[in-house]
Amino acid sequence: MAMQHGIKLTLYLISSYFGDLVAKVCECLLRRGTLSFANIVRFTKLNKMKVKDALLVRIQHNWVPAFAIQQAGGFGEAPKVLTQYIVLFDKIIHHVRFPKFLSIVSGELGKECEEMLEGLLQHGRLSLNQ
Do the Cβ atoms of 41 and 28 come closer than 8 Å? Predict the structure, then answer.
């Protein structure tokens, strides 16, 4: 887990680029660790749609992966599958290096490659059409 100053830097970066709502969801995950969607909603005290939107933005940038955990059901019940979310601290900190990445790509591969990389860095995963 990240240290206190690392969390503050990460939250500053997130709120600068994506706003306070996304930062609040990421703060909850940074401070509490792996959580289910319901627990994120409960701890952030935000409505479900806002939390969902904030998570989708982070998932698209590969900062918050989702994974499933299977829990045993009660007597006579089928097992339950819970989706959990965790924030990847190192991926967020790499955001600081984006200008350096763009500079290197521009110098070695040209302006067109720089523009494509910039689109990927700003929007996360993109399809060829986007």
Answer: no
For position 92, what pLDDT does the model report?
84
User: Is pLDDT at 68 greater than 70 in this prediction?
Assistant: yes
What is the mean predicted confidence (pLDDT) over 61-88?
84
Q: HSE, CB side, 13 Å, CA atoms: give it for residue 90.
A: 1
Cβ neighbour number for residue 32 with a 10 Å cutoff: 13
Closest CA to 37 of 22, 19, 23, 49: 49
Dist. CA 14–CA 34, nearest whole Å: 18
User: Quick one: CA torsion of 37, 30, 24, 88, rounded to 10 degrees?
Assistant: -80
pTM above 0.90, yes or no: no
